[in-house]
């Protein structure tokens, strides 16, 4: 059955998701402030600033079978996060609930930053969300707004997203900089293509008549220390580590994300660990060719 999917905040993940859904024969509408980036993608553009939805009626947003809210804050400030996440999502829900035929489900792309654990604990969807950072607190507020709403909703908490164009870690390693061995800081990550794969999979999962949970952790199958990731990258790039980096104490978290709930739906990771994922990024980004010259 052909579906209509509205992607709100149609950036890198949204465009990638849109292309995947288009290949399956669905209609995709991409909402963003500047729709120039949607040219040539096949995604129907909708130029709109979410702030303008304050007193909007149902006509402000098109009817859709599924809504994917994947907005990014435009800066790392509390006011920007407040606007992008709890306020923006609540506005969208307020409009969508007015539609004669409301969406079958709203997906909110959240973050594992809502978990503030620092001792390498294993966390899952039932673990405390005790982040003390404004970003984690406001993400959690948005999550709860969706879970408590009358519209069916599912939160997907993605861990550290990497992939094409998201290669800051590679550049740090290429400069000889790696994370310290101690204190042990666990890192969780997910390739951009698995982010989109998971969302598309969960839409198909519901369309098959399966019941979705309120929350899924979207993280690959191998939590690993940041030091080990960076040393592996150094080996691939054939560079020697010459500088040890210490993450700021105020931003340091250390946890291991358990993705068993997601795996139980039958999702198969395209990049099960950082090795497969970064191997693809290194190859596609030309990093391996560069290190041989």
Automatic annotation (TrEMBL):
Domain NAD-dependent epimerase/dehydratase: 5-169
Origin: domain of life: Bacteria
InterPro entries, per database record: Epimerase_deHydtase (IPR001509), NAD(P)-bd_dom_sf (IPR036291), NAD(P)-dependent_oxidoreduct (IPR051783)
CDD domains on file: SDR_a4
Family matches, as SUPFAM superfamilies: NAD(P)-binding Rossmann-fold domains
Gene3D superfamilies: NAD(P)-binding Rossmann-like Domain
Record protein name field: NAD(P)-dependent oxidoreductase
Source lineage: Bacteria, Pseudomonadati, Pseudomonadota, Gammaproteobacteria, Oceanospirillales
């Amino acid at each position: 059955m052909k579906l209509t999917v509205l992607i709100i905040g149609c950036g890198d993940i949204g465009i990638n998701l849109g292309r995947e859904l288009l290949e399956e024969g669905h209609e995709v509408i991409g909402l963003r402030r500047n729709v120039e980036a949607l040219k040539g993608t096949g995604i129907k553009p909708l130029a709109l600033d979410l702030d303008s939805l304050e007193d909007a009626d149902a006509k402000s947003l098109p009817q859709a079978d599924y809504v994917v809210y994947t907005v990014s804050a435009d800066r790392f400030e509390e006011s920007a996060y407040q606007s992008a996440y709890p306020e923006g999502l609540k506005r969208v829900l307020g409009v969508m609930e007015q539609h004669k035929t409301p969406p079958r489900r709203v997906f909110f792309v959240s973050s594992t930053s809502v978990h503030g654990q620092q001792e390498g604990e294993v966390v899952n969807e039932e673990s405390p969300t005790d982040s003390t950072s404004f970003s984690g607190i406001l993400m959690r507020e948005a999550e709860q707004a969706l879970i408590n709403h009358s519209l069916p909703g599912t939160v997907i908490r993605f861990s550290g997203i990497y992939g094409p164009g998201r290669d800051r870690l590679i550049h740090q390693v290429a400069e000889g900089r790696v994370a310290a061995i101690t204190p042990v800081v666990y890192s969780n990550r997910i390739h951009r293509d698995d982010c989109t794969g998971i969302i598309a999979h969960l839409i198909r999962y519901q369309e098959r008549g399966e019941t979705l949970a309120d929350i899924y952790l979207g993280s690959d199958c191998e939590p690993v220390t940041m030091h080990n990731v960076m040393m592996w990258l150094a080996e691939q790039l054939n560079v020697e580590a010459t500088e040890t980096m210490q993450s700021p104490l105020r931003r340091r978290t250390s946890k291991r994300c358990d993705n068993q709930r997601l795996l139980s739906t039958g999702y198969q990771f395209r990049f099960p660990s950082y090795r497969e994922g970064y191997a693809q990024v290194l190859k596609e980004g030309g990093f391996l060719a560069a290190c041989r010259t």
